[in-house]
Amino acid sequence: MKKITLLFITTCLCYMNGYAQTPFWSDSFEDTGSPSSGTRSAPSAFTTNTSRIFNITNDAGVSIVGAGVVGNSYAYIGADGTKFWAGEDTDNGQTITAANVLKTVTWTINISGKSNIKLKGLFAAGNTVGNAYENGTASSTGVFDYMSMQYRIDGGPLQNLLSFYPLANLASGLFPDNDFDGNGDLATLPLSNIFTEFTGDVNGTGTTLTLYMNMSMTSSAEEVAVDNLRLVEVPLASAPTDIALSATAINENVAAGSTVGVLSSVDLDLGNTFTYTLVSGTGSTDNAAFSISGANLQILASPDFETKSSYSVRIRTADQGGLSFEKAFTINVNNLNEVPTDLALSATAINENVAAGSTVGVLSSVDVDAANTFTYSLVSGTGSTDNSAFTISGANLQIAASPDFETKSSYSIRLRTADQGGLSFEKTFTINVNNLNEVPTDLSLSATAINENVAAGSTVGILSSVDVDAANTFTYSLVAGTGSTDNSAFTISGANL
After folding, report:
1. Contact 125, 144 (CB under 8 A)
2. What is the DSSP letter of 493?
3. pLDDT tens for residues 264-304?
4. What is the pLDDT of residues 47-66, one digit of tens each?
5. Where are the beta strands (DSSP E) in 294-373?
6. How far is CA 191 from CA 125, 128, 224, 356, in A?
7. What distance in Å separates the CA atoms of residue 432 and residue 141, rounded to the nearest whole number?
8. What is the rounded distance in angstroms from the CA atom of residue 39 to the CA atom of residue 28?
């Protein structure tokens, strides 16, 4: 049979712990093994008929009528086994007074050596349409409808465990009374025909626990049922023992606020919830670079491996009870292959007339990844007009043919650098040709004949030079050598022979 349970968590009524809780005592109200130890006493138990009962029964033994349609009976859902304890019209036909209506079951249980004890049980209720449970001024008899669990330890004071009452001064359903003021709490859900588990704290230690189950139902129109009472010893809460982070490395260049990893805690109390914070202490050097959102550790600024390759943070996990554990983590930054950012050439000028294949300059790359290697190539694109005039050997840019300033004074080329991962950068360069002073290639004389009898010092002709360097100026002189036989018969003035 499917059991539907509802847990109300309050300061004094209910408690949940992640440990597996094996009962050290139970009463399932079945024919055998109930209770599992100790004694159960119910001198006022009775079963007059299905409408008057304070006793062990089953669905067939009670006459509860569904609240939906008058006359349609419905069964309890979620009972543990086939039997449970029910109370209906507990005055059993007597005059309705508080004393006549109240009926009690008493258990005596040995709790020697036990501590932090919890009572668990299944509780249900039902009433006929138009006949709600009465409380306060809503009660025509002055007697309230309610159900409660109480206890004493070693004959000490009577203490409350669980309580279910109608709402204050109303005829209503039977609600949990978490503050034990004799009024149901509107913020909770009322009992229904579905058995629901509730838990109460047994405060204190001792030898003998006396447990009381009280039922006060003033008519056959109201009924309450209890099943599977258990006592469990819950270990005291323990502090978290470790913190885990789902990832301890993050890629460089991720966006600010990116999540490094998700935090989780190791704790024997399986039902605990945790709050995470960055705290000072050993290993907290870089706490200021991070924040925590829920269980997510986030980096505040985009990380850069070349600037900082790892961070140290210290994190605390605290459970809902304030118990905590701290741990330092090293967050590594993954070094990604980044794009080269610039391309340099050691020289961007070459002398004219150098040999074909001469090196213009050596290429180098700017890249934050210092260990990268690079491949250089001439590529088409803006500025690649003269690429065909050059070649690249390794990192050396070489001119294919001997340059001549007077023919072409500069070249435009486009180069690419690519790292070993294929990431690349391109740049245009202008290669200038240095204009060298070249040797004149010829000498001419405007006239090579002169008339006899001209006056001494007469000009034979004007000298001029042939030189690729068009802007050059020239000085002329008579020199010894082949053909200089008659040099002494002449003089040169400027360019005049």
Report:
1. no
2. B
3. 999 988 889 999 999 999 999 999 999 999 999 999 999 99
4. 988 889 999 998 877 876 43
5. 296-299, 310-319, 324-334, 342-345, 349-351, 359-366
6. 5, 14, 9, 101
7. 115
8. 13
273-312 burial, b at 16+ Cβ within 10 Å, e below that, comes to ebebebeeeebbebbebbebeebbbbbeeebebeeeeebe
Q: Which helix (H) or strand (E) holds 101?
A: helix 98-101
- Residue 17 pLDDT exceeds 60: no
pLDDT at residue number 300: 98
CA angle 370, 371, 372 (to 5 degrees): 95
Token pair, residue 168, equals 């204050």
Rounded-to-integer distance, Cα 456 and Cα 62, Å: 162
pLDDT tens digit sequence for 126-166: 887 667 888 877 677 778 899 999 999 999 999 999 999 99
CA–CA separation, 184 and 465 (whole Å): 124
| pLDDT > 50? residue 69 | no
Neighbours of 483 (CB within 10 A): 7
Q: Who's near 229: CB < 8 A, 6+ residues apart?
A: 26, 27, 119, 120, 121, 211, 213
pTM as predicted = 0.50
Per-residue tokens: 275: 């709050």
Contact partners, residue 490, CB within 8 Å, separation at least 6: 460, 478, 497
Q: Of 206, 101, 105, 98, which is closest to residue 152 (Cα–Cα)?
A: 206
Percent of the chain residues topping a pLDDT of 90? 68
**Distance in Å from the first CA to the final CA of the chain:** 135
- What 3-state class would DSSP assign to 376? strand
Mean pLDDT of the chain: 89
Other Cβ atoms within 10 Å of 490 Cβ, number = 9
424, 340 Cβ separation under 8 angstroms: yes
Largest CA distance in the chain: 178
Nearest of 49, 67, 222 to residue 146 by alpha carbon: 222
* Confidence band of 189 (pLDDT split at 50, 70, 90): very high
CB atoms within 10 A of CB 40: 19
